[in-house]
Design brief:
71% of the residues lie in helices and 2% in strands. It has 800 residues and is mainly alpha-helical.
């Protein structure tokens, strides 16, 4: 399958975009669109086989030792997402070539990061392995952070980018834990296998909650929706791509991907329906009072994402068909509307509803295209949004909701109708605010946009109409995705006309109530202003972040005291509290036992007790010594005694390494200690001496017992037994050289690096000492000062 190569092509093209942008300016986006167009063309070529039930698959070995592969799969749901991510994405890239000016700061970087984001998003919607999906998922978080904060000179852009990253990537970690729990419960990390044969067990509900938390954060579900309106500081093409066609649909895609296998597992359906409905209503209500066209679309996106989450996670046949239709409809109309705002802002310099008037006369083609997109968003016939909205209403009528109690289905239907009324209201507000004539508002002066600049929004708006008139072109995708659910004898198809029935009557009710909401918009705005403000999710985010900072600072202030003995004491206490306590428990319960007495040899050579005595005496003397140089020499003597033990046990290479390290360490410390006071206190600040002695003794006992148990528990033959036989295979005749150069190459390389680092440090200190002497010598030869007149170095000399 070509898909892995296409994803790699995104990265390759991103590398060449910065220099290309310096030469070609914004036209570099045309080159950046090539891998996206190629991905969309490849997906369309695979569509007949995919819709026939033959999903395209590919596998690349990633971590074979752990059984982790890069699995890719293109089925009906992935096909719909690829068409959005790559097809609509390519149109947005073409639009970007006319949107950005040649002198735009960081244009090459922006094009490169957008291309990398497109490749990562393509990986998200086609990955068939939980770990691979998570890697691509986090890549979208990182690249979106760079895109939202593109204009890093603005504090608002930096703050919004960080807020989006903390929210989406922060909750991505619990999602990873959920992935691990799901994979362990199911015995596989392949998504298709988990959905086909869902695991059960006590940890599966917890895993699903963690996965939903990550999906809700990525798709801006309340109360995690606050980051999306803030991200509108990004350039408009970025907003159109990330927040209409691609990134924010990642969470919806993940929920829709897992729903066929896990929708019936509590508490999946309850969480998805409750949070989805709350997000729909909250986003629609907030969109009604926005004056900035882009912010209006942002809150409208929040509302639509709740709608998509509700349908995709419902886990029912008709709801799945509606989810597929709404997914494609939203990508088309919302990207068209974002690009429309970009054209208006680019030409007039404002996005404020209160400052715009009469644009329908100056931009009639754009007004018609945006009107079609807004009508699709409002659910008006004959647009694709109407087709999807009717399917959603049908999904919660009796006969299609066997998975829900009748009361719950009625409540969800009422919530969707309410949210649809709000959607109609803010859709009408958008078109009126952008294009209508407003009395008393001065018409802005601007140049008409070029046809090439209008091509993308006009084309996307036209597609909303085309697919609304011909929904049968998209119905096979919806049917293929919904085939995973039983239809309970009530099949459904995407169509423009289903006859006069409850969905059509409810649509008429939505249109009437929505028009009334828009017509009396002044009264609605006044009511919104008088209502008490509820909890603010963004304030909650800031309180949480500042709370984390406060706790971190408090802990750091208490632990980072600047005292090395205190740090060592904390390390030793942690060692004893965790593995030490576990070892004591194992010895106390008999789970582990010390080796029998006959296995204990006090020494193998009469010199060993002598070296042990030297180590004990020098270590204790160093503990009691107040002079720095004397303590250093005593510690060096301890190290050399340990090197002697290595020699006695037949390890001269280790002994030589230790001697070199001890020597270099001593030399370095000599240069360092000459700048410190000659003596020091042996009592650590705030740490009783007896406590340190007890900690040290307990840690030494733990290490001794652990090593004793480890060496006596070994049952395998020593690895060195095979070295002699394999030396010839490595092409070596000297066994020691072969071990150092081949069998222990990384270990030897590490030792060389340590020695080289120590040598550089010694050389630096020697040169520093020599420079200090050169500086001090002229001062000693300075002419004698005139009596009564202080010399230029008088204060410096007194300080010395």
């Amino acid at each position: 399958m070509l898909l892995p190569l296409i994803i790699a092509l995104h990265a390759a093209v991103a590398v060449v975009l910065p220099p290309l942008a310096r030469a070609a300016g914004a036209r570099a986006f045309l080159a950046a669109s090539v891998p996206l167009a190629l991905a969309a063309a490849w997906a369309l070529a695979q569509a007949p086989a995919v819709l026939a039930g033959d999903a395209a698959q590919a596998r690349l070995a990633w971590v074979p030792a752990l059984g982790i592969d890069l699995d890719f799969r293109l089925d009906a749901l992935s096909l719909a997402m690829v068409l959005l991510v790559s097809g609509v994405g390519a149109a947005i890239f073409w639009y970007s070539a006319g949107y950005f000016r040649a002198g735009e700061r960081g244009l090459g970087r922006l094009a490169a990061v957008m291309t990398l984001f497109a490749g990562a998003m393509l990986g998200v919607v086609t990955a068939d392995n939980l770990f691979a999906l998570y890697v691509f998922w986090e890549l979208t978080s990182v690249t979106s952070f760079l895109l939202v904060g593109h204009d890093d000179r603005k504090e608002g852009a930096r703050r919004a980018a960080l807020q989006a990253l903390i929210t989406t990537a922060g909750l991505g970690l619990p999602m990873l834990i959920g992935f691990v729990l799901l994979g362990q419960a199911g015995g596989t990390y392949r998504i298709s296998a988990l959905v086909e044969s869902p695991p059960d067990g006590p940890l599966v509900p917890l895993a699903l909650v963690l996965v939903l938390a990550g999906a809700f954060a990525k798709s801006a579900q309340a109360p995690l929706h606050y980051w999306l309106p803030g991200a509108m500081v990004a350039p408009t093409p970025v907003s159109a791509y990330l927040h209409a066609a691609a990134m924010v649909k990642g969470g919806v895609y993940l929920v829709a991907r897992l729903a066929p296998g896990f929708a019936d597992t509590d508490p999946w359906r309850a969480l998805v329906l409750v949070f989805g409905l709350a997000t729909m209503v909250l986003g629609g209500w907030r969109a009604l009072r926005q004056d900035d066209l882009k912010l209006l679309l942002a809150y409208g996106t929040v509302s639509q994402l709740g709608f998509l989450m509700l349908l995709g996670g419902m886990g029912a046949h008709t709801a799945a068909i509606a989810a597929a239709g709404a997914l494609l409809a939203h990508g088309l109309f919302k990207s068209c509307l974002f690009l429309t705002v970009g054209v208006i802002d680019h030409q007039t310099g404002t996005r404020s509803i209160g400052a715009l008037t009469g644009l329908r006369r100056r931009m009639p083609v754009l007004a018609v295209a945006a009107g079609a997109a807004a009508a699709s968003m409002a659910g008006l016939p004959p647009l694709l949004g109407f087709v999807a909205k009717e399917a959603a209403l049908e999904a919660f009528l009796p006969g299609h909701t066997a998975e829900l109690p009748p009361a719950a289905a009625a409540a969800m239907l009422a919530g969707i109708v309410l949210a649809s009324v709000l959607t109609f209201g803010y859709s009408a507000r958008f078109w009126w605010g952008a294009f209508a004539v407003k009395p008393g508002v001065a018409e802005p002066h601007f140049h008409r946009p070029t046809a090439a600049f209008l091509a993308a929004p006009v084309g996307l708006g036209a597609l909303s109409l085309v697919f609304g008139l011909l929904p049968g072109a998209l119905d096979p995708i919806a049917q293929a995705y919904a085939a995973a659910y039983p239809d309970h004898g009530a099949p459904y198809h995407l169509a423009l006309w289903h006859g006069i029935g409850p969905p059509l009557l409810l649509t008429g009710l939505v249109i009437a109530a929505g028009y009334a909401l828009f017509h009396w918009r002044a009264a609605v705005e006044g009511a919104q202003a008088r209502l008490p403000r509820g909890p603010n999710a963004e304030i909650g985010y800031h309180l949480f972040v500042h709370g984390v900072y406060a706790v971190a600072l408090s802990i750091t202030r208490r632990l980072q005291t600047g005292s090395l003995p205190a740090y060592l004491g904390i390390i030793l206490a942690t060692l004893l509290a965790l593995p030490g306590a576990r070892l004591a428990w194992a010895l106390g319960t008999g789970e582990a036992a010390l080796p029998a007495g006959e296995n204990l040899r006090l020494w193998d050579s009469p010199l060993e007790p002598l070296l042990a005595l030297v180590m004990a005496v020098t270590a204790i003397a160093a503990l009691r010594e107040h002079r720095r140089f004397a303590a250093l020499i005593l510690l060096s003597a301890t190290g050399f005694a340990i090197a002697g033990l290595f020699v006695l046990h037949g390890a001269p290479d280790l002994a030589l390494t230790l001697v070199l390290v001890e020597t270099l360490t001593t030399v370095i410390l000599v240069f360092v200690l000459r700048r410190l006071p000659a003596t020091f206190s042996v009592r650590p600040p705030g740490w009783p001496k007896r406590l340190m002695v007890l900690l040290s003794g307990a840690a030494g006992t733990f290490v001794a017992l652990a090593l004793w148990l480890a060496t006596s528990a070994r049952t395998a033959s020593p690895v060195g037994a095979d070295y002699a036989g394999r030396a010839d295979e490595a092409g070596g005749h000297n066994l020691v050289n072969t071990i150092l150069a081949d069998f222990r190459a990384l270990d030897t390389f590490g030792e060389v690096v340590v020695l080289a680092t120590a040598a550089v440090a010694v050389a630096s200190l020697v040169l520093l000492n020599r420079r200090d002497r050169v500086v001090d010598e002229p001062a000693a030869e300075a002419p004698e000062a005139v009596p009564g007149v202080p010399g230029p170095d008088a204060e410096e000399g007194s300080a010395r």
